[in-house]
Amino acid sequence: MKCSAEVIERRLCAFREMCRRRGLRLTAQRMAVFQEVAGTEEHPDADAILRRVRRRVPSIALDTVYRILYRLEDEGLISRVQMSSDRLRFDGRVEAHHHFVCSECGRVRDFTSAAVDRIRLPEEALACGEIRARHLQIRGVCRECLDRRAGRKGR
Ligand SMILES: [Zn+2]
Ligand SMILES: [Zn+2]
Q1: For the chain, what is the domain count?
Q2: Considering the entire predicted model, what is its pTM?
Q3: Helix %, strand %, coil % for the chain, to 5?
Q4: I want to staple 11 with a disulfide (CB 3.0 to 4.6 A). Which of 38, 54, 75, 100 is the partner?
Q5: Which range of residues forms the domain containing residue 118?
Q6: pLDDT at 8
Q7: CA dihedral 68, 62, 3, 19 (to 10 degrees)
């Protein structure tokens, strides 16, 4: 799923602003990598980002893509999604949100929940250190996969 034009424009603005503030050159490579992460809701991994970026910047290498991704993450322009048994994936959405991860197709869905954001954290978590963010990750089987299964049974 592609993000709406409005969302993409807002993210690109933040990106250009950061480059200006940090005196970073707006290279074709940085721009292409950022656009791939910021323009999709798919939470792509670095290989998928590399494949798409190469359509525009054919010479770019995987380690360059990683370097750019980590830098963008440091600057708070993208976030990282760590799945337990999966590869590292990247997210153009940096506002607080949560994930539903499908165990069958690997799709990652975003959702927001005021209820989750308000949960009083247990003492056990607070005792570990200073809380900076909270993130709920739910694993399950997505609607599409459930429908596909149901369809297969129906035939
Ligand atoms: Zn699925
Ligand atoms: Zn997300």
Answers
A1: 2
A2: 0.80
A3: 45, 15, 40
A4: 38
A5: 96-154
A6: 93
A7: 20
Instruction: For residue 95, report the distance from its CA to the centre of ligand 2, in Å.
Output: 9
Regarding whether 64 and 23 lie in a shared domain, the answer is yes
Per residue in 77-127, pLDDT tens?
Answer: 999 887 766 688 999 998 889 999 998 998 899 999 999 999 899 999 999
The Cα–Cα gap between 28 and 18 comes to 16
CATH number of the domain within which 56 lies: 1.10.10.10
Q: Say how many Å lie between the CA of residue 99 and the centre of ligand 1.
A: 13
Ligand 1: distance of its center to the CA of 30 in Å? 31
Do 55 and 113 belong to one domain?
Answer: no
User: Counting every residue, how long is the chain?
Assistant: 155
